[in-house]
Write a structure and sequence with these properties.
With 317 residues, this protein is mainly α. It folds into three domains: 5-69, no CATH class; 78-150; 169-316, no CATH class. The protein is built from eleven helices and no strands. The termini are far apart.
């Protein structure tokens, strides 16, 4: 005997339910479907059309069964979503970049070429990002289905302080003071020398960088002054200022890495006096690599900070 559409529908709903609940659900569905079909018969529909319309409106039997079983059909629901998203963003920002940087540093110290270093860093960084996304999502999907408590609670103390729309004057003063100190240090190093020797102090920066390379550095520092004044005059960051800040960071890193790679950044006399007999050439190469990575890290952070401030200003507007 061929089963009716109603019987097939009820069987599809109850087959995934707990055996103790199947009979109750079957009875409930039979009654509700029959009432809905009778109501449509009274409106003039045929038995076949009425039954098909009612079952179609009830929807996918698997979804209905999940409702009876109180079983979620989403991967991560609203109870855990914000915690999952905040944790995932934090980990994706920190971990892949840190791992990629560590791999690149290791490859550089080991003497790998630029192509191998970049390829290994990007490949491992992407792999780490995929693993983080998968495992964090899996953990929260399990929490969603077990109903476990993450221990995360929101309270009013977590409300952020309103951000001032104007760039604080202290930020301008701090930037200008920093640039004055750097400029003064470069001039002092050249004319008086920084490193004590028991006699005449030795300059740390290579004197042969004067005047053109140091002049280029002073141009970049002057551009930083212009940027600080522009931010203060505009009372906030914007996209154009963030682009200008990023360009300055790239130029500074290019200046630094070019001289560091050519071995022209540090005064040879200083290296001979400070390190001869204490460290070998490999140690000096490693020190140069670490210094280069530090410069890149500072530049990247400065660029990101500028874009973050510009985005915050846009959001406030």
């Amino acid at each position: 005997m061929t089963a009716t559409l109603t019987e097939r529908y009820i069987a599809a709903v109850t087959k995934t339910l707990n055996p103790t609940a199947q009979d109750d659900v079957r009875v409930e569905l039979e009654a509700s479907i029959a009432d809905a079909v009778d109501a449509r018969l009274e409106q003039g529909q045929t038995q076949e059309d009425a039954e098909r319309t009612v079952l179609t409106e009830l929807g996918d039997p698997a979804a209905l069964a999940a409702g009876f079983a109180d079983r979620p059909l989403h991967l991560i629901g609203p109870r855990y979503y914000l915690t999952w998203w905040r944790l995932l963003k934090l980990l994706l920002i920190i971990v892949p970049v840190s791992v990629a940087g560590a791999v690149a540093l290791g490859q550089a110290i080991a003497g790998g070429n630029i192509g191998e270093t970049i390829g290994s860093a990007i490949g491992i960084g992407l792999s780490v990002a995929v693993h983080i996304a998968f495992w964090v999502t899996l953990v929260f999907a399990v929490l969603e289905r077990t109903g476990a408590d993450t221990g995360v609670r929101w309270d009013v103390d977590q409300l952020p302080e309103p951000q001032a729309k104007e760039a604080p004057r202290t930020e301008l003063i701090t930037s200008l003071a920093y640039l004055v100190i750097v400029t003064g240090a470069v001039l002092w190093d050249h004319f008086r020398g920084f490193f004590p020797t028991g006699g005449e102090p030795i300059a740390i920066l290579n004197p042969e960088l004067w005047p053109w390379w140091i002049g280029g550095l002073f141009v970049l520092l002057a551009a930083e002054v212009v940027l600080a004044i522009a931010v203060y005059g505009n009372k906030s960051w914007n996209r154009g200022l963030a682009i200008f800040n990023t360009a300055l960071a790239v130029l500074f890193v290019s200046w630094w890495l070019t001289l560091l790679g050519r071995g022209d950044l540090i005064n040879p006399e200083f290296i001979d006096f400070a390190f001869t007999g204490a460290v070998d050439e490999d140690a000096l190469r490693i020190l140069a690599i670490l210094t280069g990575f530090a410069a890149v890290g500072i530049a990247v952070w400065d660029s990101i900070d500028g874009w973050r401030k510009a985005r915050r200003t846009a959001a406030q507007a």
